[in-house]
Amino acid sequence: MTLDILRQRLQNQLLSQTKFTQPSQVVAWLGAVQSQDYAGAKWAISQRTNGLTDGEIERCFAKGEILRTHVLRPTWHFVTPQDIRWMLALTAPRVLALLAFLDRQLAVDQSLIKQTNTILAKALEGGRQSTRAEIGSVLQKNGVQTNGLRLGHIVMHAELDGIICSGAKKGKQFTYALLEERAPQAKTLEHEEALAELTKRYFRSHGPATLKDFVWWSGLTMAEARKGIDFVKSEFEQEVIEGQAYWFAAWQPVRKPSPTTFLLPNYDEYTVGYTDRSAIFDASHADKFPRESVLAQSILVAGRIVGTWKRTIKKKEIVIELAPFTLPTNEQNQAIIAATQQYGKFLELPVVITNSG
After folding, report:
1. Are 21 and 160 contained in the same domain?
2. At 264, is the secondary structure helix, strand, or coil?
3. What are the phi and psi torsion angles at 265 (to 5°)?
4. Neighbours of 348 (CB within 10 A)
5. Angle at CA 225, nearest 5°, toward 222 and 226?
6. Distance from C-alpha of 232 to C-alpha of 147, rounded to nearest angstrom
7. Residue 284: burial class (beta carbons within 10 Å; 0-12, 13-18, 19+)
8. Are 304 and 332 in contact (CB under 8 A)?
9. 3-class DSSP state of 112
10. Torsion angle defined by CA atoms of residues 327, 330, 333 and 335, in that order, rounded to the nearest 10 degrees
11. Within 10 A of 289 (CB to CB), how many other CB atoms are there?
12. What is the pLDDT at residue 357?
C-alpha cells in the first residue's frame, strides 16, 4: 500500500473533501452506512457533509430522508428510501442464510414469518410507528412467543422481507414503520442491474479496494462480486499492488489544502468498509491497539490510525479523552484539537480535552 491510495480513499469517502449538504446524499454516495452504533453513524455522516449537527441529522432521520434497516450484512445500515428495496432484494438472501441456524433453534420458520409479517403489516398500517417492545406486545396478543432472541429474529425477517423499516424515534426509543409507507418512492431493479449498481457505488466511494473488500462489505458471494465487477469494470481503473488487484474510479488529486485529521466513530466506513485494514494500521502499535479493535473510535492522521479517543457527554460539555500511540508533533496536535472542536460543533456543546496516562 502507498500513501497515495490512502489519499484516494480519504477523498472518495468524502472525508478530505465533500460537496454534499444532506445526509441522504452521503448515504447514497457510499451505498450504505453501517449504523449499529446510531450516534457514531450520525457523526460519520456529519464529517462527510459541510458540518451538519446531530440535531439536523436526527430531524432528517425522523422525516425518513434516511432509513435504518438490516441490509448487506446482519447488522443495521443507513440507506436511502430510493435504494432500500433493490438493496434488500439483492443482499437479503445472504443475510437470511446466515440467520438460518439460529432460526431453527428459535423455531422461526416460514409459516411463523408469514404469520408475523401479516400481523405487523396490519398493526403498523396508516402511518403508525411502534417500538420493539410495542411490537412484542402485539405479537404476544396474537399468540406469538417473543422470548429471548425470538423477537429480534422475527423483526429482522420483517425488515429483510421489505415489510418494515425504521420510523421516527419516540424519545430515546427506536420505532418501526411500514416500508411501503415510509419509502413509497423506492426503486426496484432487476438482479443484474442491482448487482452492477451496488458494485459501482462501492468502488467509486471506497476505492481503491479489492474484490475481497467488496465481498466483505456487500455480503455477496465471491462469484456474485466477480460478476458485479465484470458489469462495471469499463468504468474503473485497476492497479496491482503486491499481487492484489485494486479497483478505483479515475482520480484527480485535490489541489487546495484539505483536512487530513479526523476523529472517526467506531464502525466508520473508512475502517469497516475493507477486509484488509493493514494499510491504515501500523502493526507496531498492536500492544496499544489490537488489530481486532481497528473498528473502535480512532484518531486518523493522513489516512492512518494514530490513536484512539473516548467521549463522555455531560449536560453542559463533552469530555474527550485522547490516547495517541506516540507523542504527536505540534502540528499534529493542533490538527487533532481542531478535530475535537468539530465534534463539539456537531453536538453543539463545548469540548474539554484530556489525555490518557
Report:
1. yes
2. strand
3. -75, 170
4. 11
5. 85
6. 46
7. exposed
8. no
9. helix
10. -140
11. 20
12. 55
Residues 126 and 39 reside in one and the same domain: yes
DSSP category for residue 249: -
For residues 162 and 214, membership in a common domain is answered with no
Cell digits of residue 237: 481503473
- The C-alpha cell at 150 is 425470538
Report how far residue 73's alpha carbon sits from residue 194's, in angstroms, rounded to the nearest whole number.
16
pLDDT at 2: 52
* Same-domain status, 115 and 217: no
Q: What is the mean pLDDT of residues 9-15?
A: 95
pTM for the predicted model, two decimal places: 0.95
State the residue range of the domain holding 126. Answer: 3-182
**Residue 115 and residue 8 share a domain:** yes
For residue 292, the model assigns a pLDDT of 55
Task: Find where cell 410507528 sits.
Answer: 129
Q: Which three cell numbers stand for residue 184?
A: 413509497
What is the pairing mode between strands 175-178 and 244-248? unpaired
What span, in angstroms and rounded, lies between the C-alpha atoms of 314 and 318? Answer: 6
* Cβ contacts of 40-43, under 8 Å, gap ≥ 24: 40/265, 40/266, 40/267, 40/268, 40/297, 41/78, 41/265, 41/267, 43/265, 43/343, 43/346
- Judged by DSSP in three states, 39 sits in helix
| Distance in angstroms (rounded) separating the CA atoms of residues 258 and 231 | 33
| Cell numbers representing residue 353 in the block | 480535552
| DSSP bridge partners of 70 | 76
If one counts the domains in the chain, the total is 3
Burial class (CB in 10 A: 0-12, 13-18, 19+), 355: exposed
Residue 269 has pLDDT above 80, yes or no: yes
Q: Cα separation of 208 and 229, whole Å?
A: 13
